């Protein structure tokens, strides 16, 4: 058996879309400062690319979560593995994710972070798989809606590999 990665969204397409979304975010937050929150590990690549293109001041923090499920799907049972370093009180928080799948992670985060008195919380995701949603949540900024396929690259992994691909691909197993 061997694996092949088929390109779903090229590096050029992804970068052009991040330009657009970063432009929109810069307009929407004009005169304000954005506190970007990255959900490790998948969100790192997207957050860096986004942050480089945003023209209003930004600060950044990182959080790691774990969900105990069957391995392929997140369960509702989410725990914080790495806490934020700084308080979010009074900040304009923008959560940055690589993908919204069932929606459980974002839904948990919005509820949890909402208790900490930020001025606002919005969500920005590189990819959205609306077909897989089990919780009613949608991002304020979405780069791409994609079909229910196993995607890698731009932070997304398959058994921890492929995160560093500069494009979004689909893993295909060949017999
Ligand atoms: C992925 C992704 C989101 C979450 C989305 O993280 O980065 O955080 O799953 O799934 P959901 O909408 O069904 O909750 P993962 O647990 O794979 O960790 P990783 O980012 O470290 O790869």
Overview of the structural elements:
The chain has 175 residues and is α/β, with parallel strands linked by helices. The chain has helices at residues 11-28, 43-53, 104-114, and strands spanning 2-9, 34-40, 58-67, 78-82, 92-100, 120-128, 141-145, 151-152, 168-174. The strands form two sheets. Strands 4-3-2-5-6-7 form a six-stranded mixed beta sheet, sandwiched between helices. It is globular and about 55 Å long. The N and C termini lie close together (5 Å). The mean pLDDT is 93. The structure holds 1-O-pyrophosphono-5-O-phosphono-alpha-D-ribofuranose.
Short account of what is shown:
The protein is an alpha/beta fold.
Descriptive keywords:
binds 1-O-pyrophosphono-5-O-phosphono-alpha-D-ribofuranose; Rossmann fold; 175 residues
């Amino acid at each position: 058996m061997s694996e092949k990665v088929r390109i779903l969204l090229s590096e050029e397409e992804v970068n052009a879309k991040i330009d657009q979304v970063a432009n929109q975010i810069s307009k929407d937050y004009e005169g304000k400062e954005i506190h970007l929150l990255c959900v490790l590990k998948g969100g790192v690549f997207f957050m860096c690319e986004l942050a480089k293109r945003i023209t209003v001041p930004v600060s950044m923090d990182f959080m790691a979560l774990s969900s105990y499920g069957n391995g392929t799907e997140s369960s509702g049972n989410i725990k914080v593995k790495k806490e934020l370093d700084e308080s979010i009180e009074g900040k304009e928080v923008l959560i940055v994710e690589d993908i919204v799948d069932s929606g459980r992670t974002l839904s948990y985060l919005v509820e949890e972070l909402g208790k900490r008195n930020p001025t606002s919380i919005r969500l920005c995701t590189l990819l959205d798989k609306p077909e897989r949603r089990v919780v009613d949540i949608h991002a304020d900024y979405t780069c791409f809606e994609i079909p229910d396929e196993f995607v890698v690259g731009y932070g997304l992994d398959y058994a921890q590999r492929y995160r560093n691909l500069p494009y979004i691909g689909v893993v295909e197993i060949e017999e």
